[in-house]
Amino acid sequence: MRELRGIGASPGGAAGPVYRLAPPPALPPSAETVDPAAEKAAVREAVLVVAADLTRRADTALDATAAEVLRAQVMMAQDETLIDAADIAIDGGADAPHALTDVLAGHRAAFEAAGGYLAERVSDLDDLRDRLVAACLGQPMPGVPDPGHPYLLIASDLAPADTAGLEPDLVLGLVTAEGGPTSHTAILARTLGIPAVVRCAGILDVADGALASLDGASGVVVAGVSAETVRTVNADRLAEIERRARSQGPGRTRDSHPVALLANIGSARDLTGEVEGVGLFRTELLYLDRSDPPSHDEQVAAYRDVFAALPGRKVVVRTLDAGADKPLPFLRLADEPNPALGVRGLRVARQTPTVLTTQLAAISVAAAATDADVWVMAPMVATAAEAAAFTESCREYGLPTAGVMIEVPAAALRAGQVLRHVDFLSVGTNDLSQYTFAADRMCGDLADLLDPWQPALIALLATCAAAGVEAGKPVGVCGESAADPDFALVLAGLGITSLSMAPRSIPAVRESLAAHTLDECRQIAEAALAAPSPEAARAAVAVLRSSSGRATAAPDEDIRIRG
User: Fold this and answer.
1) Which 3-state string (H, E, C) describes 359-406?
2) Are 476 and 279 in contact (CB under 8 A)?
3) Which of 314, 459, 522, 549 could form a disulfide with 493 if both were Cys (CB 3.0 to 4.6 A apart)?
4) What is the DSSP letter of 258?
5) Sheet (strand 220-223) strand order
């Protein structure tokens, strides 16, 4: 047996034979173009074939967010600038496959240089290139294998078109050599409930058909396990799934302290099963890859679909989280040297205030037409003054519950002052990690710094939670860390009042909370705060979990959880 270590990206255990993603088509040697018109026609035919295939995948995707990403890929393929640039390359002597490859290589370099959201979409461009080349050559589209039985999928990384069609009953687990815990692959794996490990060096050396096991929490992958191990791991997984499927009701600790378990969604299609409410409604999916903003009426219809599905329940709407690092053509924002630190989120309203006011007006109309308890929050708030201005705008449009996301360390450190002006806080741990550790979320080499178990991040979470307790106002977490059943205990112990995650992650977190009292959660949080490293924090929490009901306080008496 050979043990490999990566980063746990989606909790759960799985085992079975491994099969790798089908390789991209090999680009043939360049040949002299004898019929430029035929090559240009081949480019257009390839675009039609790929766009139709991606559209079909989007229409049948299990996840609404994945469907939106696929539709964005369709728009990339149909972009006239891509086709025009390919025509120019063909006029220069290239054939269709080489013309498309060269043009997309230029786009790829530009995306990488831009960083942020665009750098995240480099794999989308690579996938689009491979599909267009395959269509030009008359070859099958690259993608997920189908060996006819359940298996573990291994790959360098996965493109949206690959992940969107994954069937959890067939693909038992995912292991990638690249990526990070906040990558598209990791987020979608959690959404689908598929155990996953990313950034696993050596996984591509494992031969197709070899038996392996993975632990999506610890990031450990073992190649060369026995058939008996495979049966045991998968039996345990099925038993766990069945047990959690029977888990119902609101989130609470063993002694009935409430911790609301809410869903992260991008549209009404993401609502699967019964949920307490929605802690993060990402509205930017309505805006992406459009040359004109969605109209007031179009927004009202989209918001009303979600609100109507949740009568009497809380729905936290995040206003548009876009800007220089999530480029929207209609915003016409200037290029920036560092988009992640530029005009994004609420800052867009500084230059284009009507985008925010139109959205608030639409949310207000949709909320008035339903019985949902609609809350609104702004992303990328850095100061108490920004929070106060946003709350005032919400009040002007008749929205009674206004809050902000804590993603910037400055806002976390001044959480008490921010709470004087808003009704609630919601911590986005993905971006808060990025800005706290100066580590780009999409840089796999720095994935260890984005670990939510980093003590510095836990300390910022403790500051926010304590401010909420003092102000008597709720503080939630809507980052991916909320989906970790162990980390949920830390958050509850800190005083966090709600956890928002992919709907499929809720049963495991509900079960974890129900097994511990609030006092045990507080002791677990103190141990995590006192730990010198993420590894030590995990180990300390594991010890306390195993002795549930008999846990003792952390030895560092200077650290105490308020509330």
Assistant:
1) HHHHHHHHHHCCCCEEEEEECCCCCHHHHHHHHHHHHHCCCCCEEEEE
2) yes
3) 522
4) B
5) 2-5, 220-223, 211-215, 13-20, 151-155, 171-176, 196-198, 7-10
* pLDDT at 548 > cutoff 80: no
Instruction: Output 69 or 264, whichever has higher pLDDT.
Output: 264
Catalytic residue among 136, 394, 478, 521: 478
Ramachandran angles phi, psi of 361, nearest 5°: -65, -40
- Tell whether pTM > 0.90: no
How far apart (Å, rounded) are the C-alpha atoms in residues 435 and 429? 10
Q: How many CB atoms within 10 Å of residue 275?
A: 18
Do 538 and 453 form a contact (C-beta atoms < 8 A)?
yes
Kindly state the helix (H) or strand (E) to which residue 499 belongs, with its residue range: strand 498-501
pLDDT tens digits along 61-90: 766 667 777 887 888 889 888 999 999 999
pLDDT of residue 562: 35
> What per-residue confidence (pLDDT) applies to 64?
65
Q: Say how many Å lie between the first and final Cα of the chain, rounded.
A: 48
Q: How far apart are CA 205 and CA 211, in angstroms?
A: 13
* Angle ∠(237,240,241) on CA atoms, nearest 5: 85
Strand-pairing partners, residue 262, are 500
CA distance 122 to 129: 11
Give me the percent of the chain exceeding a pLDDT of 90. 57
Three-class DSSP category at 153: strand
Whether pLDDT at 157 is above 50: yes
CA 452, CA 502: separation in Å to the nearest integer? 17
For residue 245, what pLDDT is reported?
A: 67
Quote the tokens at residue 367.
Answer: 């909320």
* Range name among 245-249, 362-366, 529-533 with the lowest pLDDT average: 245-249
| Residue 98 known to be catalytic | no
Q: Higher model confidence: residue 10 or residue 385?
A: 385
Strand blocks (E) in 181-229: 196-198, 211-215, 220-223
Question: Looking at 107, 184, 421, 516, which residue is catalytic?
Answer: 184
What phi and psi, each to the nearest 5 degrees, are found at residue 561?
A: -90, 130
Task: Give φ, ψ of 252 to 5 degrees.
Answer: -165, 155
Q: Name, in order, each residue with C-beta under 8 angstroms of 117's C-beta and a sequence gap of 6 or more.
A: 325, 326, 327, 339
Please state, in angstroms and rounded to a whole number, the distance separating the CA atoms of residues 228 and 16: 10
In the 8-state DSSP scheme, what is residue 524? H
- Whole-angstrom Cα distance, residue 286 to residue 317? 13
pLDDT attached to residue 399: 98
* Owner of token pair 């790959």: 155
Catalytic residue status for 107: no
Copy the structure tokens of residue 484.
Answer: 């970790």
Other beta carbons within 10 Å of 327: 17
Q: Give Rg (Cα) of the chain.
A: 24
**Which residues, 6+ apart, have CB-to-CB distance to 100 below 8 Å?**
43, 46, 82, 86, 129, 132, 133, 136
What was the pLDDT predicted at 554?
36
